[in-house]
Amino acid sequence: MNFHKFPFLAHRMISMALCLTLVSLVTVPMTGCGDDQRAGSWIEEPSWTLSHASGCKGSTALREASGNSGETPITSPVAAEDCFEYLYDTSGTLQITHSNLTLNCCPGTIEVDIVIEGDSITIQEKEGPDSQPCDCLCLYDVMIEISGLTPGTYTIVFDELYNNGGEVLEAQIELYQGSSGRICVERDGYPWI
Question: Whole-prediction pTM value?
């Protein structure tokens, strides 16, 4: 096209090209190459529920003496293990099963408190306000669901009331669609043995 015959068109085309360049320079960094998927960054505040709590599974000695195997946990860890299994699904929900959790034999309702700070998730299961202070401990299995977590690396720590100074049940886990795993620590005290 001969812009000498139509000088106003040349001026408009240059102005339009400059505008398009400026718009693309401003919007490209904002869109980026993907979503911010760092652990601890989420669109909505995570929430959690205690979806299941078993009854008292007894202790190893009680089960062997009575011939009763107790409730079967999801993966049947040996009684001398304190374990958690996890599964992270496509909706951003982390499902955790804590097997062989120790609480009082008369816990009433079992409750869970969870504190999420950045990439750290601290879980404390405890007896409810309706508990009876019985003079014994039992093993329980609980299932917890935490929704609203973005993929990333998290440290899960179980703050157990009756750990008796043993190893802390904790692990750093990588959450991505379909990730799962099982973490266990051995216990050598009552009620595990």
Answer: 0.69
